[in-house]
Amino acid sequence: MKRVFFKGMMLLLLFGATSVYSQQQQRKDTLVVTRDGTGDYRNIQEAVEAVRAFMDYTVIIYIKNGTYKEKLVIPSWVKNVQLVGEDAEKTIITYDDHANINKMGTFRTYTVKVEGNDITFRDLTIENNAAPLGQAVALHTEGDRLMFVNCRFLGNQDTVYTGSEGDCLLFTNCYIEGTTDFIFGPSTALFEYCELHSKRDSYITAASTPQNEEFGYVFKNCKLTAAPGVKKVYLGRPWRPYAATVFINCEFGGHIRPEGWHNWKNPENEKTARYAESGNTGEGAGTSGRVTWGKQLTKKEALRYTPENIFKESSNWYPYK
After folding, report:
1. Is 181 noted as a catalytic residue in this protein?
2. What are the two backbone dihedrals, phi and then psi, of residue 162, each rounded to the nearest 5 degrees?
3. Which residues carry out catalysis (predicted)?
4. Fewer CB within 10 Å, N side or C side of the chain?
């Protein structure tokens, strides 16, 4: 009888130890991706697929330098993940779809699509290197509380698509380049200390902010630059009537047109679009030639554009307080 009891206890202990070990194996907090096969995975998508659904702890996917040609999707059941590159200029996620390949259309051209919530990208490049033959999205977001820190977004037309109404996005210390409407969509997004680089005479933003959302795109302390020969760039045009975009304390290059804003060839948009500026400097920041339907914020009005107001109930997620 004692021998049977002892055997049972040993089996229980062994099962318990195996279970704990299994849980530890499942809960791996850092996954390493390397192209040479020396990490846990060779492709980023493989690492994402290895993450457990709806985690209540954070997993870091550390991506070593290299060029990863992937059409990467972060599914809706993946949350609390940080994708961290080894070096922003040397860790590159790239693909080359554009809208005119087999009638693909704009919204399937992404290099990276983020459907999950509470995802952070840091120190890496997301690129759509398709030839300039149509819309070609590098980053497509549909998740909430997404953060991009020290990242580079490279492309031509429609580089960054913020694709979900009411979701909150933060871009800080990022470089974003493109030709036409290279930041577009309906989300609420704060861009801090970013460089917006125009590669062609065209438009920087094309917000489609819903009427019921107070904040659309907010650019603070950003720098607007252009390629040689680019001299006629608008700050934005309304993709939808209630587009909301504001530039505060930014540095404008001489490529910004005196008018500042465009009505997308529809005078009715002038009654509804919510375009504003405050405290900007540089050759292109003069306001005497601005369209009459754009607004110059007072200092008091500009103070309203804080993370607490912009992100509302998600403001506790904003890390730079």
Report:
1. yes
2. -95, 95
3. 181
4. N
> Domain total for the chain?
1
Residue from 123, 144, 158, 181 carrying the catalytic annotation: 181
Find tokens 């690129």 and name the residue: 127
Question: What burial class does residue 70 get, using C-beta atoms within 10 Å of its C-beta: 0-12 exposed, 13-18 middle, 19+ buried?
Answer: middle
Full domain range(s) for residue 116: 68-311
Mean pLDDT, residues 256-265: 98
User: pLDDT, tens digit, for every residue of 100-143?
Assistant: 999 999 999 999 999 999 999 999 999 999 999 999 999 999 99
Residues 6 or more apart whose CB falls under 8 angstroms from that of 228 comprise: none
Q: Domain with 97 in it: what CATH number?
A: 2.160.20.10
Residue 183 lies in a domain: yes
- Is 35 a domain residue? no
**pLDDT for residue 12:** 44
Q: Which of 299, 248, 236 is nearest to 273 (CA)?
A: 236
Q: Return phi, psi of residue 94, to 5°.
A: -140, 150
CA distances from 105 to 135, 137, 237 (A): 8, 10, 21
Give CA 230 to chain center in angstroms: 25
Question: Is the per-residue pLDDT at 309 higher than 50?
Answer: yes
Tell whether pTM > 0.70.
yes
3-state secondary structure of 191: strand
pLDDT tens digits for range 180-234: 999 999 999 999 999 999 999 999 999 999 999 999 999 999 999 999 999 999 9
- Strand ordering across the sheet containing 183-185: 72-74, 112-114, 139-141, 160-162, 183-185, 203-207, 234-236
Determine the distance from the C-alpha atom of residue 179 to the mean position of all C-alpha atoms in its chain, rounded to a whole number.
17
pLDDT band, residue 67 (cuts 50/70/90):
very high
Query: Which sign does the torsion angle of CA 144, 145, 151, 152 carry?
Result: positive
Beta-bridged to residue 261, according to DSSP, are 236
